[in-house]
Sequence to fold (415 residues):
Amino acid sequence: MPLLSRSVADDPAAIDAWLRAKHTGFLVSAPLSDEELAERRERTDFSRGRGVFDGDRCVATFRSFDQELTVPGGGVVRSNAVSGVTVTGTHRRRGLLTGMMTEDLAAARERGDTVATLIAAEWRIYGRFGFGPAAGFTQWRVDVPLAGLGGRRADTGAGGSVALVDGAAVRELGPGVYERLRPQRPGTVTRPPLYWERLTGAVRFQPGPWVEPFHAVHRDADGVAQGLVTFRVDDVWTDDMPANVARVEQLVAATPEAERALWGFLLGLDWVRTVKSGEAPHDSLLPLLLPNARAAVIDRRSDLLWLRPLDTAGMLAARTYGAEGELVLDVRDPLGLAGGRFLLSASPEGVTAAPTDRDADLTLDTGALARLYLGDESAVRLAAAGLIEAGRAEAPARADQLFRTDRRPWCPDDF
Fold:
């Protein structure tokens, strides 16, 4: 029987088969109950969900949905967010992912999306489709007694405060905090209401009882919520003494005062000996707040958000730049969607990017452009690694002046 690739939208039986195939593809052995299937069907956007079927059984999954991505300068671009990509082990090496990915990206380009985004479970898969890592995270583990804080109270800012709140308050306050953060941090993406419902247990896809986390909010002197942290505490005792571990699930702050206050709150919790930061920005303020910065040990440092140009000129023109100047980029696209030679011009009057016949300053593929675009990578470094080709010796340094950002990009969401 031939394999059939098709949409699963508006077909509950096909969606259930898709969900089971996704579980299988990610090697999740726990079965999906009827209640879980119904909840996921209802709350997930399957309008662009596709599956490959071998008879009635789904053996490959793919889904994309609309998203906005914040770029340097606070602007946003339309993104085709890719998610739920799996191929069952029995059906690998048959071009199933290639077929679904190329069809989806071509449709996104035709639709007018500027970029495509995804969270790469495996590094080696997505480069051949033109994606590259664009933003990552660092996980810190802080030994609180070694940090040298000496029991000092958290700095909440002039007139500010930190208070514990419940899940209902998080669902009310969280979206506003996040939307105030988003223009400031390249790499952030739109959060649907489902994010806050899952964070607080209002919607649960997984079986078993819900264990409520702790939530704390920072308010400024005017009473406006500017920061929010969700964390869990592992009950640990050593030699009859409390040595608890506070594990951050999310910490978002729209102001430096809120970020300082929330880290200070966590570091000052009674009975807590270790604070684990979760997937924090590479340039988080956390280690700078410690009298002994060596108490913050990096447990993990990784890429997370991958990006793929679809409209190169539109993408380049959407962000601001760290200097004035011009740069000619010769962009190579393995799928032929966004390649070409483009003149980028940044001046006080604004930014333009347009096709050009001028000689290239830099020749690079779409994956290398993705690395540069949000400001998280150096063109000088990429040129030294042989990942971009400089037409002029000074071009990589000029590119770094243009693409640099004040804060490193960060995507706090897995999708």
Summary: The mean pLDDT is 96.
